[in-house]
Amino acid sequence: MHCIEADRVHEQHWILRAALQCNYHAPVTKMLEEGITVLDSGCGPATWAFEMGETYPRSKFHGIDASCVFPENIKPANVEFVIGNIAKHIPYSDDTFDYVHQRLLFLGLTDSDWVSTLKELYRVLKPGGYIDLAEPNFQGILSAGPSMSSLQTTLFEMSMARDIPPSIATELEDRLLKAGFENPVVRIVDIPLNHNGKIGELLWGDYRHAYINIRPVMAKSNPKFEDAKVYEAHIDKCGEEAKQSKAHLKWYAIYAQKPLN
Q1: 0.85 exceeded by the pTM?
Q2: Which residues form a coiled coil (predicted)?
Q3: Can you tell me the distance from the alpha carbon of 79 to that of 81, in angstroms, rounded to the nearest whole number?
Q4: What is the pLDDT of residues 211-261, one digit of tens each?
Q5: What phi-psi label fits residue 95: left (phi over 0), alpha (psi between -120 and 50 degrees) or beta?
Q6: Least buried of 53, 118, 208, 224, by fewest C-beta within 10 Å?
């Protein structure tokens, strides 16, 4: 992961924390204060794990990611990392973690990856332990204008072609229940896109950057996006529309438990 991309993910963490007013949703605060073992699944540059590690020094945080994008030298003593593909095998034994956190993998996991990832997370979670998932519903932007709608259509087609579930955020509760988890609690937050102050502006900047990054695959579904200038102009038009129509991105956060028996 390039420095620019890592910076974007760090900023993304800040945006989400400010918009959601929290770093997690499961009722684990007391446990974290007393000391538990936590897995940050698909941790990226580990902003969440670092901040949580500093906030809860008695707990132990393990981050896992498919590539080495996390800092290896400067880190809190209670945070460590492994490289691994969460959809294939998480290199920890059964019933290791009290709490599992995972977010923003909606463009990274295929339909079957989600099934196998949740199966693996279930395996490494202790009975009674909590899983906490969060994803944006890119298909469900409120008050999207025509440019944004056509961008979403292209994203939908690109996702389907790659077997990536385009509305995974709305399916998380059902998928957790199918994987064996129980007592799911869902929170849906509408986050402003390019309006309503700093959070809206920053979220749009992040959204725009993410779309610029995936232009090559988007162009496979929509040939007119092969021209980078045409594509950027289209995205900037989306930003203007979002500002005018007061668009919102729906953010889904859901937690559930592994049964005790």
Answers
A1: yes
A2: none
A3: 7
A4: 998 999 999 989 999 999 999 999 999 999 999 999 999 999 999 999 998
A5: left
A6: 224
